[in-house]
Write a structure and sequence with these properties.
By secondary structure, the protein is α+β, with helices and mostly antiparallel strands. The protein contains 16 helices and 16 strands.
């Protein structure tokens, strides 16, 4: 009996000692709670699938099977390691590498994930790359995209788009607004600081479960920050720093037990070498668009762009057609570029677009988008929109009254405004065309040209508006 009691006592003592030897954080991990979400998970898959089609229309993929397979294997391993309470069997996690050199990655609702080759090239080991992927798919697992969409639909008013005019025609202000059904919404690509911190913490847990050291996530954030120089890197522009990011990730790492890993560093080094042997990646400016990746100034590439010169070629007589998501199609002069900024899409010639005072601007061309308005009457809805635009630009003035228009076979209106361009310092004319969508959104086209050149551009704008076909 004495020996039995002694053995039990020894066993109990060993258990207590082992518990004391464990990192205290193992019983005190930061609790992560997914935000309330009125949508079913099938909505995430639907919206993500639609948005992924638009992404792959605008962004070049890297056509190298070995690199694609390598990243997909990392992603699969991470997705399988997401804690059970955040698993959604309906989600379709997929991983594709883009042929873009910017340090960026993003994941759409439902799991459709994209990684720029530039991010792989900047990583110093597989864990750093895995950390960013883990962060992105954590947004998916927590359903941040549709939660944010629901919140925006509940609270957003037209006042939220008051800054559009400044960014479009005046050269100041931030591009705000709502994309509605067109392309890739900011809802899916830019999250609040609260959501960013949740993705960091869940990403760290997922990494540990998958056999990666969560400290690599903190290290990668340092790499990304350093890469941005004074202007800030593209990834950080759409992922606002919640504050003390590295500090709380490292603290969380202390509370996590990293599972055994079977990663071979030689494979990562081979992929890096393979990338170096390929032609250099392209920038977003070179690809002629931005999908939904923009910094807060609206710059389509995430890199600093030169200011527009205002000196442009005459519009080409031949037109090129574009399909913008599932919402509309449009035809514009062949020598105009397509610049999809997330909340809207701009078509402008070389020399007409660039960056001024931190904002993306253009001096000649058109911008198309959807605004959420309270009024359901076209005239009053357009009044709301014009008023919101004037609040964002002190130089914007009415030049004419409303004119009736036919836009895609629907009742439409147009109105001409005047403005002083901060690019040229000269007067410019701004024509706004509007029509209502079946969901209550206000579809708009903003046409801009210097006043002295407007007579030559007006028939071009008329032909552009006539070419529009709307699905909605």
């Amino acid at each position: 009996m004495i020996r039995t009691k002694t053995a039990r006592a020894i066993a109990s003592a060993l258990i207590i000692l082992s518990m004391l030897a464990m990192p205290t954080g193992l019983v005190a991990q930061t609790k992560v709670v997914a935000p309330k979400n009125p949508y079913g998970v099938d909505k995430d898959v639907q919206l993500g699938s639609e948005a992924s089609q638009e992404v792959e229309r605008q962004i070049p993929l890297l056509h190298d099977q070995e690199i694609q397979r390598y990243v997909a294997n990392i992603g699969r391993r991470l997705a399988e390691s997401i804690p059970a309470e955040f698993q959604h069997s309906e989600f379709r996690y997929s991983y594709k590498v883009t042929d873009l050199k910017e340090l960026n990655a993003f994941a759409l609702p439902g799991g459709f994930t994209y990684v720029n080759r530039g991010l792989i090239e900047a990583a110093t080991n597989e864990g750093e790359l895995a950390g960013v992927i883990a962060h992105e798919i954590s947004h998916v697992a927590l359903r941040h995209g549709t939660a944010q969409l629901a919140k925006a639909q509940k609270y957003q008013t037209l006042g939220a788009i008051a800054g559009i005019a400044g960014a479009v025609v005046g050269g100041v202000g931030n591009v705000a607004g709502q994309l509605g059904q067109m392309g890739i919404g900011a809802y899916f690509l830019k999250f609040s600081r609260e959501y960013e911190k949740q993705a960091d913490l869940l990403g760290a847990r997922t990494m540990a479960n998958a056999g990666y050291n969560p400290r690599d996530l903190a290290n990668m954030f340092r790499t990304i920050e350093k890469s941005g120089g004074g202007g800030g890197p593209q990834w950080m522009s759409s992922h606002p720093n919640p504050g003390n990011r590295q500090e709380y990730i490292l603290k969380e790492a202390e509370s996590l037990q990293v599972n055994r890993s079977d990663s071979d560093p030689r494979e990562f080094n081979y992929i890096k070498t393979r990338l170096r042997d390929l032609p250099a990646g392209r920038s977003r400016v070179e690809t002629g668009g931005s999908g939904g990746y923009r910094n807060p100034s609206g710059n389509p590439s995430g890199n600093r762009m030169p200011a527009p010169t205002g000196r442009v070629e005459n519009p080409a007589t031949r037109f090129r057609s574009y399909n913008e998501g599932n919402l509309f199609s449009i035809a514009v002069p062949q020598n105009w570029r397509e610049l999809a900024l997330g909340e809207n899409v701009t078509f402008a010639p070389e020399g007409a677009y660039g960056e001024v005072q931190g904002a993306f601007v253009f001096t000649h061309g058109t911008q198309v988008g959807v605004a959420q308005v309270k009024a359901r009457d076209l005239r009053r809805a357009t009044d709301e929109y014009v008023y919101a635009l004037s609040q964002g630009n002190q130089n914007l003035r009415r030049y004419s009254g409303y004119q009736r228009e036919a836009i895609a076979g629907r009742e439409g209106l147009s109105i001409v405004l005047t403005n002083v361009s901060e690019v040229t310092g000269q007067a410019e004319l701004v024509t706004i065309y509007t029509t209502m969508l079946s969901n209550g959104g206000l579809f708009y086209v903003i046409a801009v040209a210097p006043e002295r050149e407007y007579r030559g551009y007006q028939p071009v704008f008329v032909n552009i508006v006539r070419s529009i076909q709307i699905n909605g």
